[in-house]
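Hi V.,

You were right to ask for the full record rather than a summary. Here it is.
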Amino acid sequence: MPGGRPGALSGPSGGAVGPLWGRGGSGSRARTRLHFVTAAATKCPREGHAQAPSPSPRPLPTACANCARASEQLRERPQDTPMAWPPLSTLPDTPFPSWTLAVLAGVAEGLLSPAYWALDRLLALLVPTTAQRARWRRRRAGLCLAVGARALAAPLLLLALLLALLPALPGLLLWLPVQAKRRPFVHQHAAAAATAEPWDARRARGFTFLTANVCLLPSGLARFSNLGDTRRRAALIGRILAAGAPAEASGHRHGLLEPRRGRGYGGTAVRGGHPGGDAGRGAWRAATADGAMEWPEMPMANPTSMANSRPTVDSVPAPELPLTNPTPGAAPCPASGLGPERPIPLADPMPAVLSARVPPDTDFVCLQEVFDGAAAAALRRQLGRRFPHVLWGVGPGGLRCGRLRALGSGLLLGSRFPLLAARFQPFPNAAREDALANKGLLVAQVLLGTEQGRRVVGYLGCTHLQAPAADATIRDQQLSLVLRWLWEFRQEQDRRGDLVAFDVLCGDLNFDNCSRGDAQNRQHRLFKEFWDPACCDSGQEQPWAIGTLLNYLKIYEEPVSTPEEMRRTLSQPWGRERFLAGPILSCGALDPMAPRPWQGRRVDRALLRRDPALTTEVIGYSVITELATMSDHLPVALRLRLGPADL
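Predicted structure:
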């Protein structure tokens, strides 16, 4: 391509999309240099030395020393020219490659919308949340009126659904082939948010990663997780995740009077409550002048070495104190002895883990379960205020891997740095209710800066594994696919001279490090390549680690109804045992033999590759309560300090 501007590779089935020069593709640059040299051959830098332009590109004759020196300078100049910042994106910015397909997709969705709306409203009517039940009980004759209104509305919605099936059938027949042509993801470049300044790798810098399962299913399906009002929640979550947005009161503040019993999705279950009073109010807090939370820069002492021997303890430690700052000087638990012998220091003591606010310096956000289309649109509009680069519409539905996928992958990635390339790979082995979603792995190559002609890049993966607790074998296969796809993507996008700053994998893995039923998954070989900072070893957590999966039937109770209340409650053992999901067996039932007090199921992870190319320190790990009553998961933030590089 003249001028050396790289092109893009894209495909509807989930291939890599990125620069043509991503893997050893220096032909375009070489042709550019040759073009410059040929043009310069018409005039020698030394006066009186001139040549006729050659019709074919060939190097200058070496008879003149000045001409030879000019030729060498012109050959080297493009290599020293800094890359434009931010570089021109080559990722697709529309869901379809042509407007015709976009129009057909709109027609298909218009035909399907009435049936979708009627079914969604019917499910929402039949499955009320525990907060709704509590409101009915507080009003005189409230329960009778609510049941009566639903008895009248249900037949009308059912009739509307039956009538809407008539246009839905041709809509489905049109929707399926159109979805086959849809791109695997869409890149949103928001002009309202400024791209982060390029990083000078000769100086150390901190990077913050955040992962969260936001449970933005269609409202009817979200009721099975005791959540509703998906579009309203999406707007609130987007404002919270966009750093600098004003905090708003959210959720229901009314206690749960009659908790239901039963087993929930992914092994969440009700455990008998324990009486408790007000939690200690001396938890660590740090605030800037404008009230936003910030990470403390803790000194690095007693670095955790990857080569330390494994601990012999095979059970979950039972902390008796609130999860605030540990005793100064207490050494962190040694990490697993698996993997290369490359030490990654861990803050000692670790800053307070529980935080009521999202870190304002978040650089990358990885979200799961962004399934509802309207909710996704509201969410990415809000995220565009903070993250100029957002990948959305990841893994569209349709016929994928021989099965009908009614929903997409639910993955969404936001970045303050430019994205050079990205790829989505769907899982071929989903089962049960998860087979309705096109889950998989989204991985992106991020440009952090350039130094002396070398690109400084990072790799960021986002995934969501099989959810039902009994499907450990399926999750094991998906972990193997994730490990292989990450390696293949790096091999394809790696360019000679690249400096890889980080390789981070985030997501909802749907298994933890304390349940006996998850033993098969936590021993997967992926953990030989990637390190979990909150994990000491298989079956043993760091003393400060805390679960991220809530007891979904109790998310509206007063002790966890606001970010501050939830932070205070979960800092106490009784609060964690009452409001967090407990350890499970392989069948998904609660483990009656789990040692108490336990830390909860930590299914949301932020992992980093064990053998970093740069000096890497973990200076912060935070479990965030700001999404109280808006999700049944707690977001996790990981902060790394990288560099400086010896260039």
